[in-house]
Amino acid sequence: MSKIITEKKIQIEVPLGKKKERLDTFLAAAVENATRNRAQKFIEDGFVLVNGKTVKPSYNVAPGDVIDVTIPISPRPEDIEAENIPLDIVYEDEYLLVVNKPAGMVAHPAYANFTGTLVNALLNHTQNLSKYNDALVRPGIVHRIDKETSGLLVVAKDEWTHAKLAEQFAKHSIEREYWAICWGLFKELKGEVNSNIARSKKDRKVFTTSVDEGKTAVTFYEKIEEFEFTTLLKLNLKTGRTHQIRVHLTSIHHPIFGDPTYGGREIVCGSSLPKMKSRVQNLLEIMPRQALHAKTLGFIHPHTKELVRFDSELPEDMLALISKLR
Predict the structure, then answer these.
(1) Structural domain tally of the chain?
(2) 173 partner at 20 to 30 Å CA-CA among 214, 239, 266, 298?
């Protein structure tokens, strides 16, 4: 299935005499089929430039401003096909299923990832997928993890189940335990990172910690095993923000090993150790992504009202990395 057009570019010059107006409100009126919420998301995701620079949705447009909008074209519903992609299904009943997603797989079709997603694989497995949330593109998808993060996801088969699971995520009552290999050694056995997460002002596609902007985020961590210059951590989330673990660990100078976005592919510590550069390069070849795995997932089953808890083994690349580090 070929996709020729993947984005649409629009340039708008704010006319003379235009009264002060928020950028998101202006775009909602100026761009066909746009809404203010959609305009806000495009601005926050870096798809809108004003005079060549990224700005906030609250920016007040002024006469003469040149606004460049890049609209990513999502796949049409009829273009989303079932694909025979193997699924590692940890649990399944008539209401939901729990899948162990491999690294490299996107949860659902979107800009630049039209095929090979978890949704494409799910459609090949079952036609019973919830239509609760953006059903045309994200059937059954209750929550997501990053493309290059492996691990457990719950998928809903009907709208009622989806809604009840979504409530638990909103209340932060879902148990989510991640394992990560990060740079550096820790003095304490356990710790907590409690800092807001906001989009970076330098690059709207990445995130950073902030004192007075963004959303509240809390991550708890505990040492499992120490190596020469890295540590295997167990992490639990009180909140579920985009890139939360990756950003929080980077903020305390322990980026996840192999993470290309948040400094995990650079030598953070141990530079004085013998042959450190070649040793790290060898380890990075084993781990071409961030060494992060969503290992455990627990929630109240919406129908049985019982606590269900699922665990998964670490993927081969993380096991190989741990073996080398030992």
Answers:
(1) 3
(2) 214
Q: Across 82-229, where does the E strand assignment appear?
A: 89-92, 96-101, 150-156, 175-183, 190-194, 196-199, 207-210, 218-226
Mean pLDDT on 94-109: 88
**Residue 67 bridge partners (DSSP):** 12, 50
End-to-end CA distance of the chain: 45
Domain that holds residue 61: 7-72
Q: How many residues does the chain have?
A: 326
No. of helices (H) and no. of strands (E), the chain: 7, 16
Q: What is the pLDDT of residues 107-135, one digit of tens each?
A: 766 655 567 788 888 888 888 888 765 54
pLDDT of residue 1: 38
What mean pLDDT do residues 203-217 have?
86
d(CA 236, CA 239): 9
Q: For 257, what's the count of Cα atoms within 13 Å in the CB-facing half-sphere?
A: 29
Average pLDDT over residues 302-317: 96
Alpha helices in 107-239 (DSSP H): 118-125, 159-170
* 124: its two tokens: 């090949």
pLDDT of residue 325: 94
State residue 35 phi and psi, 5-degree precision: -125, 165
Residues recognised as catalytic: 146
CATH number at residue 233: 3.30.2350.10
Single residue among 48, 72, 96 that ends a domain in this structure: 72
The tally of CA atoms less than 13 A away on the side-chain side of residue 222 is 6
